[in-house]
Amino acid sequence: MRNTKDTVRQFGSIVVASIAAIWWSIGLTVLQPMYEPRNVDATAWIGNSTYWMRESRWAMVAVIVLAAIWAHRGNPLRSIMATIGGLAWLAADTLLNRADVSGFAATSIAIVVSLTVVAIGVGSGVRDPAVPPGRRVLIASFCVASALAGTAAILESPTNVEPALLWGGFISGALSTVLALGCAVEARRNPIPWKAVITAATICVVLVAAARILLPFAMLVMLLVPCILITMGYLLVTTGPMRFLHAPAIAACCPALLMLGTIVFTVRNDGAKLVTAWAGNPPVNSVDVDFIFTALAVFTGLIIGTVATAFAREPRPKT
């Protein structure tokens, strides 16, 4: 008999991935041509926020990968396959961006193809979930999703007036929140405190929405939301009284790592420059830095996930 946790995973993963796929398709074929700089000679005004639509699309791809991992219950082999598929999706995104695909036909094809990929990659996990779940992978995934929810709060453009900017940041932040708590719930072996999970999700979604509307608070929300999600997620996947000390300590590392990662990705931004060049876009001006916040979220989340996994390791049963 299917329990509540299975129902949430099966329904939540496919819905989250489908919303992300549709937004990615619209972003590539409608919004990217609308907001992409066209004059390759006018690079003086092109800053690191000019390519915000690329950032929004890449966050959607990360969401789809995390949804697939959740659907497959963190199975290591399937998670590796989902990650490889995500990298291939990013490569396709860059090539299609370079080709300047646009129009109703392109949008329709992109939606159909992306939803088909979701149905195969995520839907297969819904129909045939891995047994038992890959607990370590799920812990790392909820940490990555937590960091991604934070970086969504600071998505910005040169003008910060585009309606799609507000919606893009909110959608990626809300979906990442669902994924973070969903992966944590899946990794939990004890009964689920659903009221606490729903409360944490509601608080984080409201904070992300507030950050999109009140941009001066975006940086604060970027640091606060991951802390809430990581604390809640760690408390879900661990047992014992020490978890109440470990959880805030691990969560407090996230803001520091986000700041450190920002410095690292600012100094070493060759990858972002290559992506911009491969997409056929003008380079960011010399006084600014090309930056991919999705990569920062993955980088931060994986480090936090490694630490959380080490502390959440449970003793082997005696034989």
Nutshell version of this structure?
It is built from twelve helices and no strands. With about 325 residues, it is mostly helical. It is globular.
Q: What is the overall shape?
A: globular
Question: Class by helix and strand content?
Answer: mainly alpha
Number of domains: 1
Pattern of helices and strands: HHHHHHHHHHHH
List low-confidence stretches.
none
Instruction: Report the end-to-end length measured between terminal Cα atoms.
Output: 31 Å
Percent of residues in beta strands: under 5%
Number of helices: 12
Key descriptive features of the protein:
12 helices; mainly alpha; 319 residues; 0% strand
Describe what this molecule looks like in 3D.
The protein has 319 residues and is an all-alpha fold. The chain has one domain. It contains twelve helices and no strands. It has helices at residues 4-35, 52-71, 76-98, 104-121, 123-127, 135-152, 163-187, 194-213, 218-237, 243-267, 270-278, 293-311. The two termini are 31 Å apart.
Blueprint of the fold:
Layout: H1 4-35, H2 52-71, H3 76-98, H4 104-121, H5 123-127, H6 135-152, H7 163-187, H8 194-213, H9 218-237, H10 243-267, H11 270-278, H12 293-311
Helix pairs in contact: 1-2, 1-4, 1-7, 2-3, 2-6, 2-7, 6-7, 6-9, 6-12, 7-8, 7-9, 8-9, 9-10, 10-12
